[in-house]
Design goal:
Cofactor: Mg(2+)
Strand content: 25-35%
Shape: globular
Strand order of the largest sheet: 4-3-2-5-6-7
Membrane topology: Peripheral membrane protein
Structural class: alpha/beta
Distance between the termini: 40 Å
CATH architecture: 3-Layer(aba) Sandwich
GO molecular function: xanthine phosphoribosyltransferase activity
EC number: 2.4.2.22
CATH class: Alpha Beta
Organism: Kiloniella antarctica
Bound molecules: 1-O-pyrophosphono-5-O-phosphono-alpha-D-ribofuranose, hypoxanthine, magnesium ion
CATH topology: Rossmann fold
Oligomer: single chain
Helix content: 10-25%
C-alpha cells in the first residue's frame, strides 16, 4: 500500500452523490434492522445512508488497520460488532485488500456489506458498492483534504 501512483480525490459533493446512489441500490436489499458503521471511514457514509433509508438504529465496530503513513499493519479491534447480524447493514467507505471487510464479515456473517468504493482485491467480499478503482489507486476522502493552490499546467512563458 506504500506505492500508490494514481490518486482518486473525492469531494464532499461526490461523496454525498455516491452515498445517495448506494442508498438507492440498497433500497431493494432491505429493510434493514440497523446499520453497523465500520469506524472511522464508514461513519459519514453511514449517516447519509441512515438518513435516506430512515434507519435510526446505528452501531459501530471499531477497527484500526492503516497507520498515518497509509501502511497496513495488524488489525486492531477496539470494539466488536453486535452478536446479531441477520437483517443488518454494514457500511464502510471502501474495501481495499479486503482485510478489514473479512474481519467484520466473520463477526457479522449474515449482514449485507456495502461500501462506496472498491478495489479489485476486496470487491468480492462486499455485497454492494458504487465505484471500482484500480488496486494501485489511493482514494482521498474529503475529510482528509483541504483546498489549496496548484500551479498552472504551463508556467513561465511570459516570465
Ligand atoms: O480493505 P482494507 O485493505 O482492509 O482497507 C480498507 C479499510 O481501511 C480504511 O480504514 P482504516 O483502518 O485506515 O481506518 P479509518 O477508517 O479510521 O481511516 C478504510 O476505511 C477501510 O475500513
Ligand atoms: O485508498 C485508500 N484511501 C483511503 N484509505 C484507505 N485505506 C485503505 N485503502 C485506502
Ligand atoms: Mg476504515
Amino acid at each position: 500500500m506504500s506505492e500508490q501512483p494514481k490518486t482518486f480525490p473525492v469531494s464532499w459533493e461526490q461523496l454525498h452523490r455516491d452515498a445517495k446512489a448506494l442508498s438507492w441500490r440498497l433500497m431493494s436489499q432491505g429493510p434493514f434492522k440497523g446499520i453497523l458503521a465500520v469506524t472511522r471511514g464508514g461513519l459519514v457514509p453511514a449517516a447519509i445512508i441512515a438518513r435516506e433509508l430512515d434507519i435510526r438504529l446505528i452501531d459501530t465496530v471499531c477497527i484500526v488497520s492503516y497507520s498515518s503513513e497509509n501502511k497496513q499493519g495488524e488489525l486492531k479491534v477496539l470494539k466488536e460488532a453486535p452478536k446479531e447480524s441477520k437483517g443488518w447493514l454494514i457500511v464502510d467507505d471502501l474495501v481495499d485488500t479486503g482485510k478489514t471487510a473479512r474481519a467484520v464479515r466473520e463477526m457479522m456473517p449474515d449482514a449485507h456489506f456495502a461500501t462506496l468504493y472498491a478495489k479489485p482485491a476486496g470487491k468480492d467480499i462486499v455485497d454492494s458498492f458504487i465505484t471500482e478503482v484500480s488496486q494501485d489507486t489511493w482514494i482521498y476522502f474529503p475529510w482528509d483534504l483541504a483546498l489549496q493552490t496548484v500551479p498552472p499546467l504551463v508556467q513561465g512563458k511570459y516570465d
